[in-house]
Write a structure and sequence with these properties.
Layout: E1 3-7, E2 13-17, H1 22-31, E3 38-42, H2 48-59, E4 63-68, E5 71-75, E6 83-84, H3 86-91, H4 97-106, E7 108-112, H5 125-133, E8 137-141, E9 144-148, E10 156-158, H6 164-175, E11 180-184, H7 190-201, E12 206-207, E13 213-217, E14 226-228, H8 233-246, E15 249-253, H9 261-269, E16 273-276, E17 280-284, E18 293-295, H10 307-314, E19 320-324, H11 335-339, E20 344-348, E21 351-355, E22 364-366, H12 370-382, E23 386-390, H13 393-396, H14 402-408, E24 412-416, H15 419-429
Parallel strand pairs: 2-15, 3-14, 6-7, 10-11, 18-19, 22-23
Antiparallel strand pairs: 1-23, 1-24, 3-5, 4-5, 7-9, 8-9, 11-13, 12-13, 15-17, 16-17, 19-21, 20-21
The structure holds ligand EPZ.
Ligand EPZ is lined by residues 23, 26, 94, 120, 122-127, 161, 163-166, 187, 304-305, 327-328, 370-371, 398.
Length: 430
């Protein structure tokens, strides 16, 4: 297994280029098979989840050509299997986007049930509600979810909870249903809008994405398109938190500042200065960090995927901060690891009470999930001494060349695969 080894204490300074949004790209790749013509998707992040999704498309018979690390051609005309193997859903929950894509195109699909994960139970009842409303029969048994429909007919669907996945999955199926579909209480995340724009570029008729009411008029078929994925606002926010934690100064390039509004607002409250440009934000933190309050909410609220990273920052802020996690039921697991670096955080139900400490001390810690792993790296960048983060395969799921981008900003961080390499790094930085 690989690790990140970090010698803390360097302020991150310079410029960083943000990659394409993983959570938009995963859904877009699934939707790409909804036409029999060739689709080109650009600005893909070169991360594990994307590579697994491309493998899943190949596995069901689509032709996938990786033009380069960030571009793929996909042709869904040769799909011969409508059942997605368990190994894919085990690795990435987002394989379930193939339910909506295959149901829309072939009126049939089968995917292994996605289990829960470390941050919560992750139910799919709203996906099922939407598919049934469109006329599909849904059978959940033997660890599989099968959806079939003689006809898909537009419907009026109210989402009991705001769900990114259910909104996207139902939107895909409805794009090729007969008639009109209205999705109420829809998720408004930038990647929901990106998927809607992608489907519209293929000839779909989707209006209102980005608001809480999405209107879809089904079309007969979809056609080819060339599409570029939006920048990843969570990767951008992660680097912005690294600036705050290390008192740095970084120009975060290739972003859409509007997508970062909640993250920027909270970093300003915590003591940073932020300058916005057309496709970049400059984050400067040259004074003390101060406490603030965070509650995670669906977009445009503060993103749950930015919760661990901000907690790591506030753990070093003067005063007492609170972070309330309102989306997932178990997203504070990493706090025990932060505590081993000196953080003083008490978790009561879904609220973290954070008493700021002067600084962290390096330790050997374990990444429990993707965003918590990034938060532990942020803490390591600020810590006194050496931090070793184990289980970095979680981080590599969603951050392209994370250590390389951080090194370019002056961080002392290496990816290592054994004790010998760890020792070598320790000698180099001592
Ligand atoms: C997406 O997950 C993201 N994953 C998550 O990012 C992100 O945290 C989440 O949206 C919220 O923004 C991808 O896009 C691949 P939800 P998703 O459905 O779609 C409940 C990361 O780090 N719910 O919006 O699964 C659910 O339990 C990952 O990149 C139901 O009750 O999230 C949760 O409380 C982690 N029934 C809430 O809705 C359902 O049928 C929001 O979940 C579906 C969801």
């Amino acid at each position: 297994m690989e690790q990140f080894v970090i010698k803390g204490g360097n302020a991150v300074c310079g410029e960083v280029e943000i990659s394409g949004a993983k959570n938009a790209a995963l859904a877009i790749l699934a939707a790409a098979i909804m036409t029999d013509e060739t689709v080109t998707v650009e600005n893909l992040p070169d991360v594990r989840d994307i590579n697994i999704m491309l493998d899943a498309l190949s596995d069901i018979g689509a032709v996938v050509e990786r033009v380069d690390r960030h571009t793929a051609h996909i042709n869904g005309s040769t799909i011969g299997q409508l059942s997605v193997d368990y190994e894919y859903i085990k690795k990435i929950r987002a394989s379930y986007y193939l339910l909506g894509a295959l149901l829309g195109k072939y009126r049939s699909a089968e995917v292994a049930l996605p289990g829960g994960c470390v941050i919560g139970s992750r139910p799919i009842d709203l996906h099922v509600k939407g598919f049934k409303a469109l006329g599909a029969d849904v059978d959940i048994s033997y660890g599989l979810i099968s959806v079939k429909a003689d006809r898909l007919t537009g419907s009026h669907i109210y989402m009991d909870k705001v769900s990114v996945g259910a909104t996207i999955n139902v939107m895909m199926a409805a794009a090729l249903a007969e008639g009109k579909t209205v999705i109420e209480n829809a998720a408004k995340e930038p990647h929901v809008v990106d998927v809607a724009n992608f489907l519209n570029s293929m000839g779909a008729n989707i209006r209102g994405a980005g608001t809480d009411v999405i209107r879809i008029v089904g079309v007969e078929k979809l056609h080819k398109t060339d599409y570029s994925v939006i920048p990843d606002q969570i990767e951008a926010g992660t680097f912005m938190c690294a600036v705050a934690a290390t008192r740095g100064d970084v120009l975060v390039k290739n972003v859409i500042p509007k997508h970062l509004e909640a993250t920027s607002a909270k970093l300003v409250e915590a003591g940073c200065r932020i300058q916005e440009f057309d496709d970049a934000v400059r984050v400067i933190c040259d004074g003390p960090l101060v406490h603030t309050q965070i509650t995670t909410l669906p977009y445009p609220g503060y993103p749950t995927d930015m919760q661990p990273q901000m907690t790591a920052v506030l753990g070093m802020a003067e005063g007492t901060s609170t972070v309330t996690e309102s989306i997932f039921e178990n997203r504070f697991k990493y706090v025990d690891e932060l505590a081993r670096m000196g953080a003083d955080i008490q978790v009561e139900s879904n609220i973290a009470i954070i008493r700021g400490v002067r600084g962290y001390t390096g330790a050997r810690v374990c990444a429990p999930d993707l965003r918590a792993g990034a938060a532990l790296v942020i803490a390591g960048l600020a810590a006194d001494g050496i931090t070793i983060v184990d289980d970095i395969h979680y981080i590599q799921r969603g951050y392209e060349n994370f250590e390389g981008k951080l090194r370019q900003l002056g961080a002392q961080i290496e990816r290592t695969c054994c004790e010998k390499e760890i020792q070598k790094f320790m000698l180099q930085v001592s």
